[in-house]
Amino acid sequence: MSHVNQIAPPFNSNMPTGNYDIIVIGGGHNGLVCAAYLAKAGKRVLVLENRHILGGAAASEEIFPEFTFSVYSYVVSLFRPHIVRELDLTRHGYQVIPLECTFTPFPDGESMTRCGDPEATRREIARFSPKDAEVAPRFSLAMTQMASFIKHLIDTPAVDLTSLRISELAKLLGLGRRFKALADGDKYVLTKLMTMSAVDFLKLWFESDRLIGPVSVSGIIGTFLGVRSPGTAYVLLHHYMGEIDGAFRSWGFSKGGTGGVSLACARAARSFGADIRTEAAVEKIIVREGKAAGVVVRGGHDIKCNTVISAADAHQTFFKLVGEKHLDADFVQQLKRFKYRGSSAKVNLAVDRLPDFSSKPGEGPHLRGDITIAPGVEYLEKAYDDAKYGDFSARPFLDIVIPSLTDPTVAPPGKHVISIFVQYAPYHLKEGAAQWPAKREALGDTVVDTLAEYCPNLKDSILHRQVVTPWDLEQEVGLTEGNIFQGELSLEQLGPFRPVSGWSRYQAPIDQLWMCGSCVHPGGGIMGAPGELAAKTLLKTG
Amino acid sequence: MPIPTPFHDRTAALCSSYRWTDWAGYYAVSSYNLPNDSEYYSLRHAAGIIDISPLFKYEVSGPDAALFLSRIMTKNIEDIPIGRAVYCCWCDDFGKIIDDGTVFRLDNERLRVHTAEPMLAWFEQFKRGFDVSLEDISAKVAALAIQGPTSRDILRQISDMDVDALAYYQLTMAQLDKLPVLISRTGYTGDLGYEIWMDNAAALPLWDALMSAGKPFLLQPFGLDVLDIARIEAGLILNGIEFHNATHCLVESQKSTPFELGLGWTVDLDREPFCGQQALKAEQATGSQLALVGLELDWDEQAALYAKHGLPVQVHPGAWRSGVPVYNNDGRRQIGKATSGAWSPMIKKNLALAAVDTRYAEIGTRLKIEYTVEYQRETVTAEVASRPFYNPEHKRS
Fold first, then answer.
1. How far is A250 from A67, CA to CA, in rounded Å?
2. Fewest CB atoms within 10 Å of the CB: A101, A247, B231, B298?
């Protein structure tokens, strides 16, 4: 990891010098994107990262020798293409390899592979429902139309619903116009998307549970909701907005793991003159006379600046670093109601051979995409039922990728890394969240057992296993209650309501304190948009 | 009708898309899969293998072999040390390009030339007075290119020689899995890579050995469609697209000179006479009218054209070679033509190769290129950029 140290030396051995205009707390991808934009605009910027590596939840680590895990997040899609261009990230090592397929094995020995070949996909779905096979392209088209409508929303700051400023009204009007410009049918689709559950919405199109199950899971990722919970249809769309090279609904691996995205952002920030330090735990944001004036780093170092931007989540920023005493009671109340309730975990495996699925034996493109254990709606609802009462799912939804099949840098030749996203693993266990360390390996066993039901050779192939529970996410990367999006992406927590109504425009209710993490609009995923929009908004206000 | 290459049994078994094209009379795979993204990404991130047997290959031997080729080529072939390869081109008496290719110096009196078109007759006409023999070995020698960042790791597994010692544009005789081959560190992808030349009889066993050794290093076969994207990213020109063999051209404007094609670096002017020398000297003195440039298209302007139709911006997979006009910055005057281009997944830009008036060839010059959206012809800004567009460190390291 020597190259990381070149970009970002540890704080302790290398104290930053110079007068900084801006300090960014948190060297995750959003903090780094934000810093890059600000440095590009000529600001003197210092980024302080708590951990020894950069990336926050978009980090790659060689947990076991020669095996690099994308420890937390695992795929890239939503990262805004214009950020790549504006920060010249390809020159700094940003490389994304698209996923080829979505493969869903079923317990009865069947499977479904959906890939980039439309006719092959149609034949595959038609094995279960000829009607669904015909409707699927229409569904994709409708979602693309919805995504291009919504895209404007995620690429601009949220509309301020209370402001009478001309610019805000114009934005609302513009939104209204775009809505009006949609075909009538699309208006209904959009309205339904905003209100329905993922499953109900999908049932408007499809009949086969084998298709609805795996498609619906995009509606629950990172939320403590079930596929039948109202509002999850919108989250489905959020995952459809991912673009790679102009194509919606495409997901990819970042070369070298998701930390590759963060490192590219860090290199860009450095190239524009930003200073970045790791192992710099910010303990406090200095607030003087209602104004942020600097930070205190562990070890008692005060670093002064004109503006502080926090990429940490709202809970960490305001309750841990600022302190309630500096905040208005109503703001505190709203912030306390902001829902985190992390619901997912991650299991990373190092294996000595590829998994061999009984339903589709051998190797093939189906292993080079994402592999979804979501065999039906009932399975997913049962998984949710366990979580509702404080247990991890006995048979969880798994989203599996094998990045070493397309990226030779993450595993030794012939060996592989398997990344398994697991839901539900509720932060709030019935025994209490602090019991997670005691349950960590039990969760790992459950995940391996679940997957081994579909690929019997899995258990013998495992060389190393890492289990990351929501508790670990909170402890290691500071994600409150282990929510991967710094707060649920449920409708009432999006746009102008994120994280607190009236405070969605990156500025905090403390002068010269700003937010740029996923807890602000437009939310989570390796998107970079909060970081970018925070920087641009700040630069506009001078 | 095309005929199979020595690798056909293997390539045909893998070509699930049935997408073939005719390359110099041989069946060549356009793409193995549909879509072919994985071929591209394995080439750029791991390794890819492609059958390049349809290249024309000539063995030139005898005491005057190097001298003879120096008479033909723009480059002084006598200067090439044994074990080196060079890229060069050759011209007619008027300095107009005939073809380009690689010349390998196997030993003092034995060289090989690889060309895109048949060149026996062209070369033969210069033979008089030289103690040289010329053999067309095209049909006897099969060839593969193995390219990409893990290609060296793969060769290391089955080679009897020190692959790491083979520098960029060096070549050596070696055994791969006990099969005698000629390996050159050359290619047409702008990546780390090798070309392997062998007797036809060794073709299938060598393919099998490479595929087997390559598996842990994620080796995949790729077709000409991906090669076309890769060579554009590498800024490399193609006979029949960026230039035309002067002997095929009906009018002067269809011909090009090495200087116009950015191949000035392959021209050694001050030496014994060679074909086209006088004309090229004159051109160097007066300057060229045209220059080959790389262009990067402005993304926001492309997006705006799509937005006019209510469409999200679209990226067309694969390279184009249909040719479009290039205009000056105000769009009023055509100052050149773009001959081919592609969306580059590595650098996230639409790229093009173009021949433009030399006054517009400086890096950073903003031009306009024709761009059609929804059947409407428009233009977008294209900036002259340095080539290669994609130039990874591992290419030469």
1. 26
2. A247
